[in-house]
Amino acid sequence: MQIDILTEKIAQLRLSKNPLLVAIDGRCGSGKTTLAKKLHNAFGGNLFHMDDFYLRPEQRTPERYAEPGGNVDYERFLEEVLTPVCEGNEFSFRPFDIKIWNLGESKHVSPEHINIIEGSYSLHPSLASLYDIKVFLDIDKDEQMKRIVKRNGKEHALDFRDRWIPLEELYFAAHNVHKICDFVWRTD
User: Fold this and answer.
1) In sequence order, what are the residues at sequence separation of 6 or more whose Cβ sits closer than 8 angstroms to the Cβ of residue 36?
2) pLDDT per residue as tens digits for the range 58-92
3) How far apart are CA 92 and CA 133, in angstroms?
4) For residue 19, is the peptide bond before it cis, meaning its omega torsion is within 30 degrees of 0?
5) 64: which residues sit within 8 A by CB, 6+ positions away?
6) Which CATH code, of 3.40.50.300, 3.40.718.10, 3.90.105.10, 3.30.1370.110, is assigned to 2-186?
7) Which residues have C-beta within 8 Å of that of residue 7, sequence separation ≥ 6?
8) What is the pLDDT of residue 31?
9) What is the domain partition of the chain in residue ranges?
10) DSSP per-residue string spanning the chain
11) Which of 10, 81, 89, 95 has the fewest CB atoms within 10 Å, measured from its CB?
């Protein structure tokens, strides 16, 4: 199985790398969160979600959305999460809370040996060089929509189809994300 190869690689690298950073990027509905949870259950450590770094309302400009990968606050993720993780420091960050449409309550993070980062845009060019293992999950477009409808409902699935998927595709094409990955898997 593909996950066995990945878990073997993590087990091997954790002997020589501390902290060890694993990034899981890919198309929405491809199973990034599911894979991250499986790895987190197997190895423990910290688990970070790029969804916690949605752009705040004042950042949502046409210029920012035109930037491939610009619809996530990768600068804040680098400053508030990746840099302290790489330095082995304790830190806090405020995840974006969609219920209040702003930053939520602060989360405290302790240093851990293994750190898993999941979500679209986790392999943005400003972040990619910091990871030890890079995974890209791909999915057939029809299966992708079936999963999004099941997860988010039909009404929200249209928003994914018309807005979020095109932004992801722009990012994937502009930065050739799958080409920098150690593992590229189809999950359909």
Assistant:
1) 24, 47, 49, 116, 118
2) 999 999 999 999 989 999 999 999 999 999 999 99
3) 24
4) yes
5) 55, 70, 71
6) 3.40.50.300
7) 39, 42, 43
8) 94
9) 2-186
10) -HHHHHHHHHHHHTTT-SSEEEEEEE-TTSSHHHHHHHHHHHH-SEEEEGGGGBPPGGG--HHHHHSTTTTB-HHHHIIIIIHHHHHT--EEE--EETTTTEE-S-EEE---SEEEEESTTTT-TTTGGG-SEEEEEE--HHHHHHHHHHHH-HHHHHHIIIIIHHHHHHHHHHHTGGGG-SEEEE--
11) 89
- Mean pLDDT value across residues 171-185: 96
CA distance 43 to 46: 9
Question: Residue 1 above 70 pLDDT?
Answer: no
In sequence order, which residues have a C-beta less than 8 Å from that of residue 80 and are 6 or more positions away?
91, 93
Q: CA distances (Å), 158 to each of 4, 143, 163, in order?
A: 35, 14, 8
Q: pTM above 0.90?
A: yes
Token readout for 150 is 């099941």
